[in-house]
Amino acid sequence: MSDALRVALLGCGVVGSQVVRLLDEQADDLAARIGAPLELAGVAVRRPAKHHDVPAELLTTDAEALVTRDDIDLVVEVIGGIEPVRSLLMTALQHGKSVVSANKALLAEDGATLHDAAAKAGVDLYYEAAVAGAIPLLRPLRESLAGDRITRVLGIVNGTTNFILSRMDATGAGFGEALAEATQLGYAEADPTADVDGYDAASKAAILAGLAFHTRVTSADVYREGIGEVTAADMASARAMGCTVKLLAICERTDAGVAVRVHPAMIPRTHPLAGVGDAFNAVFVEAEAAGSLMFYGRGAGGAPTASAVLGDLVAVARNRVSGSRGAGESAYADLPVQPMGEVTTRYHVALDVSDQPGVLASVASAFAEHGISIQTVRQEGRGDAATLVLVTHSAPDAALRATVDDLSKQEFVRRAASVMRVEGMAADR
User: Fold this and answer.
1) Is the Cβ–Cβ distance between 253 and 187 less than 8 Å?
2) Which residues neighbour 416 within 8 Å (Cβ) at sequence distance 6 or greater?
3) Apex CA 352: angle with CA 349 and CA 415, to 5°?
4) Distance between start and end Cα atoms, the chain
5) What span, in angstroms and rounded, lies between the C-alpha atoms of 312 and 101?
6) Per-position pLDDT tens, the chain of length 429
7) Is 204 an annotated catalytic residue?
8) Which residues contact 426 (CB under 8 A, 6 or more apart)?
9) CA torsion, ordered 352, 358, 364, 368, to nearest 10 deg
10) What is the C-alpha separation between 337 and 315, in angstroms, rounded?
């Protein structure tokens, strides 16, 4: 058994407190798996008086002093946000400490800088907990599928939005009502913007795309739409098509490079992701040799996320004991990120129209002018309540948007009530 490895923990909230608990409760097992004991040497927090479960002598408000201490071997970060965390982790790496982080926003914005610092110092940077909580996902992409060619990653990576959309689908509730329920049950934050507007999922999509396609992808490269505009009528239309609506993170290898996007989409109820309910996460991976794989589980929460943190901690600790280093960043492919306007998919379009002869022909003509083929069309309602509902074949996003813009200017179209992408059908691929 080697000498103890000393761990500095940055942050002790919902996840950090569970990390402290697991380090204590599983100390003997962790030591046996690693070949050396793990010893919690310090915990950086803003308000030490709030953390009664942590020995007072371990608590400090000086995170920078903690990560630069000579006796610290490993740094675990569960604070979140960009600064001061970026500076703290850069300092830790430059001082030869391996880092385990759950910080999706930072890794998606500036992971390249952290990876470069880790490589220069010859230490590890692991972040399994940054995407999909306890679900083992990043390590399989980085290691288990390293000999394969991944073509697509399609996933539900935000539990809050999945709970909201699941409730809308099950009960017929509107977005506001479902959000209020999610907030009451603790699934949504007091300020749910990062979740419902898709920022959280976009950060995760950037990390997934970078690993899957060996290309540096940042959150700024990800096309993003939230779920705030999804209506009960959208849910009813999806149901009529045998579909449901999910907020999807979609990473694809295309002829032009890679396309990375986050937006609500209709998917068939027969698709494996359609049955993922409540606050669960699931990611569907398609690879040339392995075929289709799905990873499913709890994507958030203190204990599940702490489980992923401990998994990384064991890995970097083993490397430390053996004097080795794990797999670093793989960005050799350096593929271009395709603009959203060039991305092709299918669409569900609902147009409130005048109920008069010639309208359908005019609408079909507008789609044809932009090179978009219509798969199905139906009319709902009559008179002032008439709505045309169309589903297209695959078409470029820019062409669809131009078509809807042109139709919105026509006198016979009162408004474009809904435009939503359709994913996961056999004809999509």
Assistant:
1) no
2) 349, 350, 351, 352, 404, 407, 408
3) 85
4) 53
5) 9
6) 789 999 999 999 999 999 999 999 999 999 999 999 999 999 999 999 999 999 999 999 999 999 999 999 999 999 999 999 999 999 999 999 999 999 999 999 999 999 999 999 999 999 999 998 889 999 999 999 999 999 999 999 999 999 999 999 999 999 999 999 999 999 999 999 999 999 999 999 999 999 999 999 999 999 999 999 999 999 999 999 999 999 999 999 999 999 999 999 999 999 999 999 998 999 999 999 999 999 999 888 899 999 999 999 999 999 999 999 998 999 999 999 999 999 999 999 999 999 888 999 999 999 999 999 999 999 888 877 789 999 999 999 999 999 999 999 999 999 999 999 999 875 444
7) yes
8) none
9) -130
10) 31
Place of tokens 């359609």: 274
Q: What is the pTM of this model?
A: 0.94
Question: How far, in Å, CA of 67 to CA of 9, rounded?
Answer: 9
Tell me the one-letter amino acid at 328.
G
- What contacts 419, CB < 8 A, 6 or more positions away? 347, 348, 349, 350, 400, 404
CA–CA distance, 179 with 253 (Å, rounded to integer): 34
| Tokens matching residue 139 | 């390590």
Distance CA 118, CA 199 (A): 26
3-state secondary structure of 1: coil
d(CA 207, CA 152): 14
User: Which residues lie below 8 Å from residue 258, measured CB to CB, with a gap of 6+?
Assistant: 209, 213, 215, 217, 251, 252, 335, 336, 337, 338
- State how far the Cα of 178 lies from the Cα of 132, in Å rounded to an integer: 22
Token code pair at residue 265: 């989409």
Residue 241 is given by DSSP the state T
Catalytic residue among 97, 204, 246, 409: 204
Amino acid symbol at 126:
Y
